[in-house]
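> example.struct
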């Protein structure tokens, strides 16, 4: 009986030790930039781009339509803690399969006036960006949930 109790305790301790939570949060130099863009649109909401850092959220004030050849060069202003709290989990939805995409344009963003997403990923020394089509039939299924979550977060920030 003592042997079974000892083994059970050892298994429990090993299980707890091996399940230590990996720090999936953003470090001070990591960030995720996300936003949408629409060419056939009028008003301030046509281009909305945000920069999510470890414990802060910023909104781009330039509102420039992103291009497929260069990282977005925004001019960011800090937003409230409440708005950060809305978006702080967005990195958890990032589709890591996106890192293996050979190009940075996925689908035909905004080709039919349905808009696109700008996503920039800087984590652990990897820095990449993509323009994603908002028409889900034009992008891999692995991106659909992330597209929905980005659109949801942007709507909540308005």
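> example.seq
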């Amino acid at each position: 009986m003592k042997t079974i109790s000892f083994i059970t305790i050892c298994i429990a301790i090993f299980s707890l030790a091996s399940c230590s939570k990996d720090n999936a949060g953003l470090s001070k130099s990591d960030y995720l930039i996300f936003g949408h863009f629409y060419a056939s649109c009028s008003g301030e909401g046509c281009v909305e781009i945000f920069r999510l850092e470890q414990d802060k959220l910023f909104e781009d004030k330039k509102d420039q339509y992103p291009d497929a050849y260069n990282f977005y060069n925004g001019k960011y202003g800090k937003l409230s803690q409440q708005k950060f709290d809305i978006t702080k989990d967005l990195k958890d939805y990032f589709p890591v399969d996106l890192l293996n995409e050979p190009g940075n344009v996925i689908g035909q963003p905004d080709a039919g006036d349905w808009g696109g997403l700008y996503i920039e990923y800087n984590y652990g020394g990897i820095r990449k960006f993509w323009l994603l089509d908002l028409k889900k039939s034009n992008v891999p299924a692995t991106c659909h949930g992330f597209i929905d979550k980005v659109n949801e977060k942007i709507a909540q920030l308005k």
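> remarks
Strands lie at 31-37, 47-52, 57-60, 76-78, 105-106, 116-123, 126-133.
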